[in-house]
Amino acid sequence: MKILLINHYAGSVYHGMEFRPYYLAREWVKMGHEVIIVAASFSHLRQKNVEMYAPIKEEIIDGIKYIWLKTPSYQGNGLGRIMNMLSFLCKLYRYLKHITKDFVPDAVIASSTYPLDSYPANWIAKKHSAKFVFELHDLWPMSPMVLGNMSKYHPFIWIMQRGEDYWCRNADVVISLHPGAYRHLTERGLLIEKFNVVTNGIEISEWIDINTPEIPLKHLDCIRSLRKQRKFILGYAGGHSLSNGLELMLEVADILRCEKEISFVFVGQGQQKEDLILRAKKLGLDNVHFLPPIPKRAIPKFYHYVDALFCCLPRSPLLKFGVVMNKTFEFMIAKKPVVCANSSTFDPVSESACGFTVPSGDAVEMAEKIKEIRKLPESDVLNMATNGYEYVLSNYSYPFLAQKFINILLKTLN
């Protein structure tokens, strides 16, 4: 099968996020399929963007053909990002002959966060008698309306709504990362029989590599100091933004300040980090430690050093659509018990019995579960760790997810 995957923000292990297109495509290539990924040269998600000396650039990465379209850089979510989107969309039309030169796709996948790439994707699919596949990452425009408090009458939201309605009506098949998204999409015109779920997952080799590098000395000194004090360490490594709900953990730390043997270690960066640090100082929390981000390959080593891991999904109307917290997959493969604040209809922590889930925003219950985990017999902790590890291997490894995706495409083609 020949697959053309359009993802504005696609990256790779060499560029940084987003990783899903790369991981899926790499597995598809191993299966014998041909894959082209079309992406923008600049993305705010990547650690390393693509150097461009022409409007279009081809590159082979681990058997995957990448076609980069030159787009302007930007910061934040203002006009610059909109111009970046428009530039990418226009060049999809402009360079179609180059993109599909000697490559007639069987399936064209629109896979960006925003829905506007569905227009060129469907146009390309029709030109080549291919199937038009829409891969749903986030519910747009619902997400910016809920998280950014934007009016449905805002011009940006109006345009995005037209895009969502378009792909709901025209896609031959929909692959959703969120199991409950059909509740919304069928109201926008999607036929339920077109709806399929392939969540994000985990690249197993990155988490069990014996050559995992050591964490930085600053982080190691912090861990060693807490160990000398016989602390029970709860860890988190990832983004410090509103969507990660970390302010809840400061409430939890405040509740547990009298439990002198419990400490929290936050590793990472993000727009909310400085606010979290200031709030922790204001509350006088000496059981909370903030550390800089570390390379992705070193994160498994950090997880190895802590006793348990925590993550939070803030309260949101979006949770009823089965929002997937990818961080939990990392925690489970790390063989550590997990304490998670999550009111989503998708809850792998409870399903796998690898820890405890409490309602989003419930700091008191979160604190109680942390105390409970700390007091568990070692055998119970080991069972939790094993449960999570085996569950991820069976259900959320990228070879498994890539095969599931391909099976859906093959069924559609037939």
Q: Which ranges are low-confidence, i.e. pLDDT below 50, for 5 or more consecutive residues?
A: none
List the strand order in the largest sheet.
3-4-2-1-5-6-7-8
β-strand amount: 15-25%
Mean model confidence by pLDDT = 93
- For the report, how would you describe the main beta sheet? 8 strands, mixed
Q: Over the alpha carbons, how many angstroms does the gyration radius reach? A: 22 Å
* Terminal-residue CA separation: 12 Å
Protein model, in words:
The chain is α/β, with parallel strands linked by helices. It has helices at residues 20-31, 79-94, 96-99, 118-127, 142-147, 155-170, 182-185, 205-208, 217-228, 247-255, 273-283, 299-305, 327-333, 348-352, 363-375, 378-395, 398-413; strands at 2-6, 34-40, 56-61, 64-69, 107-110, 131-136, 173-176, 195-197, 232-237, 262-267, 288-291, 308-312, 338-341, 355-358. The strands form 2 sheets. The protein has an 8-stranded mixed beta sheet with strand order 3-4-2-1-5-6-7-8, sandwiched between helices. The chain has a 6-stranded parallel beta sheet with strand order 11-10-9-12-13-14, sandwiched between helices. α10 (247-255) packs across α15. The longest helix has 18 residues, at 378-395.
